[in-house]
Amino acid sequence: MNPRPPRFGRPIRLVAGTAGLLLCAVCADAAPKRALEVEDFDRLAAVDDVVCSRDGREIAYTVEQSDPASDKRKTTVWMVDFEGKHDLRLTDPRESASNPKFSPDGLYVSIVAARAGDAKPQIYLLDRRGGEPRAVTAVGGDIADYAWSPDARSLVISLSADEGSAKTPPPVVIDRLRFKQDVTGYLTTRDRTQLYLVDVSTREVTPLTTDKRFDDTLPAWSPDGKTIAFFSTRDSDPDRTGKLELYVVDAGTRGTPRKVAEFFAPNKPALEWTPDGTRIVYTSGLEPRLNAYIQDRLNVITVADGKTRSLTDRLDRAVAHPAVSADGDSVDLILEDDGSEAPATVRLDSGHMDRRVGAKLSASSLCSGGGRVAVVASTDGAVPEVEALENGALRKLTSHNDALVAQLSLGPVDDISFPSRDGTIIHGMMVKPADYRAGRLYPTILWIHGGPNGQDSHGLPVDTYPLQLERQWFAAHGYVVLAVNYRGSSGRGAAFASAIVADWGHKEVADL
Q1: Closest CA to 312 of 452, 453, 493, 488
Q2: Global pTM value
Q3: Disulfide check for 108: which of 61, 85, 103, 239 has CB 3.0–4.6 Å away?
Q4: pLDDT tens digits, residue range 350-373?
Q5: What is the DSSP string of 200-238?
Q6: How many C-beta atoms surround the C-beta of residue 243 within 10 A?
Q7: CA pair distance 207, 192, nearest whole angstrom
Q8: Is the dihedral of CA 140, 141, 145, 146 positive or negative?
Q9: CA atoms within a 13 Å half-sphere pointing along the CA-CB vector of 335
């Protein structure tokens, strides 16, 4: 069993018990409701990035909120138990922290954070028995991702190069087709990531892969700790081919990586070993000219012989956030489908898929452990919170936004469908003012999602692009808002999404 001490050495908030929450809910319901205000966008907390402990009894997650003092968005790491009785803040709200993971032995929660004196964000260990956070890295580059070894003695990190801080920055040399990336800016050799092993006790860092011509990303240990799987682009120019490759490398001898699969790059890369260590589950995408239309598929490969099988080739829907079950028989994931992003399960033997929740919702992250599954989900009447998935229903575990949402009078959301000019049936949503009256004329806004990929969906995500929340803000000001999933949108299959390839400004405009 994982130890469950009360705190981590810093002040921690303990959420009130069930009786207190019920009392608050009753008080909130009795208070008069008000319309959504633009200031509420900053008052709401963005809950996301769940990760489950090995036994599934605890879930770590992140909460991003506006900090008026610094005029910035800052992220804290929290932990809630699967029963929803104890919700603990683990990190100081004055210092952003992200990417939490549980150590396999249950003793630590690791995070990536930049504390006082850190030139770059480092990996810190929060000892669940108490004490101050302890830095386990002191690297000069950017940590893209990391993973624990099964024995909890080592980490593997995906790290970009450290070129130091020259007084005069060197010129940017463009030597590839894909030379710029949102947030990162210009892409150079410095942005290539390699893999390194970190000894948790000594903090010694040892290179695992060293060829800086390639990106080595998303490392994952095999259950026996002998092998590390990762994505790379060693045999092809990904800017030209759109390909991604799956490699395995011996973690002990740090030998030559062996390629086991090659495929088109997905929009949301993911890989995970099965518990018996014989197979790897991973996502793949579409050819480059169709890649923008988000149709990630789930595959399983047998490592010994390289035999690959698609688990969702007949599904014709995008999937994300796969998590292999504890018994190795199935994969829990998020299924994008016609206005929803919902939890689902696919069998590893047959590829049979079951949607786990029938409600219309938007799930943004998912994790599993010990047969338990948790998701971050929102509905048309509630912003994202951590939820336990049980018996075909969601059970709320966190309440970061309950008090604020209880004050709001939100408008009803109706599904709509209609034929476009050529007869193609188009789906979408209509958001109405809270006091909507049938038969009355309302000013109407066509609120168009960008992309053109992606979709408008049911739910109220609080993130960088809170389109669904903005629909409610317009409705609060007396508008009817139309959210149309025109051709080019995801959620209704590859043919519907790719109908506008090389033909922008035609069919989707007609649909709108």
Answers
A1: 493
A2: 0.90
A3: 103
A4: 999 999 998 899 999 999 999 999
A5: TTT--EEES---TTS--EEEEE-TTSSEEEEEE-SSS-H
A6: 18
A7: 14
A8: negative
A9: 24
